[in-house]
Amino acid sequence: FRTVQRPVGMPDITQMPNAAANAKMKREIESRFKERGDEFAAPLWAKSMAEVAGGTAKGPYTIGKIDDIFGSPDSWRGMVRFAVSQRREDGSWKIRPCDNAAAGGHNDATSLGETITCERADFPTRMAAAFWSHLGRGSWRMQLGTDDIVMAYRRLGNRTPQFGVVVQIDPSSGEARYFITPGLNFGLKAAVNQ
């Protein structure tokens, strides 16, 4: 990781008007759904419920239940979950849940002391040369690969789950419901580094 300068004067998410922000999010998504619906509400709900079944989210809860879980309406801050739709080769749509940490204020209240440094494309060649210089000619072979961890963001612990709460519409009732993501949200600035 490469060190970066932390900005001065960033907002402290624990001191922000969280209860007011949470109430506003609730009003806005319920009103928007009531006025014009959302074609992705049902598949997005199914994705969130699959996260619950898989153990990478908890819920769904009402706003009152979230207040009880975290102690008060000001002790947590939600972010609106929305669908990112991607067209597959067969023409069908793949829905990916994304949590709006930018609009929720989470990203503005996040500073990173370091950032990632990506490897260059010649990494495999450099590694093969390094092995060759130490092992010489022989019976060894270089093999490379990549592994993708399913739901990797969700599997990394979040020490502040009260700021990982997502809100979305329950399409069957049109009411806001809340999920706690014990891991990192897809949409948090800090998730990539973590």
Bulk shape: globular
Rg estimate, integer Å: 21 Å
State the helical fraction: 25-40%
Structural class: alpha+beta
- Give the terminus-to-terminus CA distance: 11 Å
Strands, count: 7
The biggest sheet, with number of strands, parallel, antiparallel or mixed sense and barrel status, is: 5 strands, mixed
What's the helix count? 6
Could you tell me the strand content as a percent range? 15-25%
**Strand order of the main beta sheet, please?**
2-7-6-3-4
Low-pLDDT residue intervals, each spanning 5 or more residues = none
Order of helices and strands: EHHEHEEEHHEEH
Chain-averaged pLDDT: 89
Question: How is the quaternary structure best described?
Answer: single chain
Structure description:
It is built from six helices and seven strands, in the order βααβαβββααββα. The strands form two sheets. A five-stranded mixed sheet has the order 2-7-6-3-4, with helices on both faces. β3 and β4 form a beta hairpin. The N and C termini lie close together (11 Å). The longest helix is centred in the first third of the chain and has 19 residues. 32% of the residues lie in helices and 19% in strands.
Main traits of this protein?
194 residues; two-stranded antiparallel sheet; alpha+beta; 5-stranded mixed β-sheet; 6 helices
